[in-house]
Amino acid sequence: MQPLSRRHFLSSTVASAAIVAPLSAALSGTDKFARDRDWSGNDPVSYPEPAWEIKDKRFSGNQSNSPLQRLWHGIGTDAGLWCEGPVWMADWGCLLWSDIPNHRVLRWSEDDGHVSIYQPDSGYSNGHTRDMQGRLIAVEHDTRRVRRREYDGSWTILCDSFEGKKLNAPNDLAIFHDGSIFFTDPGYGIMNPYEGHKAAFELPTRVYRIDPAGHVAVAAEGPMRRPNGICFSPDFKKAYVVDSGFTDGPKYPGNVIVFDVKGTALSNPQVFADFKPGMTDGIRCDTDGNLWCGWGWGGPDTNGVRVHHPDGSVLAILHLPEICANLCFGGAKRDRLFMCASTSIYAIYVNAIGHVVS
């Protein structure tokens, strides 16, 4: 595989996205999804929340009297560059997420909305989750590894190589019901210095599994060109894996592949949904089995979240003014959707409950 520069693909679009929110305050307010609203929250938006576009009458996940809010948009030297990898820390009362190019993990506190730096040297981490014991798990681009934060604050390396060769740059991960960790390794962190450092690929792009005893095995090699976001259905009978090969050029896939899960093996890969003219990145399931997918890279009307029924059909779109890289459910009832969208963090209460293991 001859990877093209992800930085070349992302740089102009991310730069454009970064100015969407500041410019929107000066616009006339004619966008039907209210993406040009005053994101400070000082000017109210009339209910029902106009950012929702319902595509299928089966969808009931929109909470019509809940506003779409922008929780954070750093400015000046505090500005975010590419927000990713959100995880809800219920016992900490906060959201953590990665600002990959700035080499840090940020924390939003639910009690007062304060944002602070949780981890200043993050290894250019991308995805996060929590294991069955509530410990934070991070996948890191620059250091090319999977790490676990222990209760005492120390970190344990779970995997940084396979069969004597360095991992490419782990990207996202999901916990299986037996406690094993499935993670993707598309290699974005070694394709340029923006999200890590430039280095040679030593392994194919794959999905791996770390079992509870720490043994690592290949869970899937193909059909994804660049396996990216990953999650399981609520019954753990399906595994969803994003293929973001579209970043290598428009002839490559921008879809979600669904696998059957038998025991701990992934089999029978099929295209679940196609996201062109854009692509998806981070994904999560709710307890009804619907798949919530960050969306973008296909123009303004692809910026946001797409919700898919378990049969693959599109149920709804939540429109944002920025490309949405990743998302997670959180809050006391797991009914608040948090979205990492380029340079900002957005949130909205939904009539759905996020599926999580721990």
Descriptive report:
With 358 residues, the protein is mainly β. The chain has one domain (6-349): Neuraminidase (6 Propeller). Helices cover 5% and strands 41% of the residues. The chain is built from two helices and 27 strands. It has helices at 6-18, 20-24; strands spanning 52-54, 69-72, 83-89, 94-99, 104-109, 115-119, 125-130, 136-140, 145-149, 155-159, 161-162, 165-166, 173-175, 181-185, 206-210, 216-220, 227-232, 238-243, 255-262, 265-274, 279-285, 291-296, 304-308, 314-319, 326-330, 336-341, 344-349. The strands form seven sheets. The protein has a five-stranded antiparallel sheet, with no helix packed on it. A hairpin with a 2-residue loop joins strand 19 and strand 20. The longest helix has 13 residues, at 6-18. The protein is globular and about 60 Å long. 49% of the residues are buried.
SSE blueprint:
Layout: H1 6-18, H2 20-24, E1 52-54, E2 69-72, E3 83-89, E4 94-99, E5 104-109, E6 115-119, E7 125-130, E8 136-140, E9 145-149, E10 155-159, E11 161-162, E12 165-166, E13 173-175, E14 181-185, E15 206-210, E16 216-220, E17 227-232, E18 238-243, E19 255-262, E20 265-274, E21 279-285, E22 291-296, E23 304-308, E24 314-319, E25 326-330, E26 336-341, E27 344-349
Antiparallel strand pairs: 1-24, 2-27, 3-4, 4-5, 5-6, 7-8, 8-9, 9-10, 11-12, 13-14, 14-15, 15-16, 17-18, 18-19, 19-20, 21-22, 22-23, 23-24, 25-26, 26-27
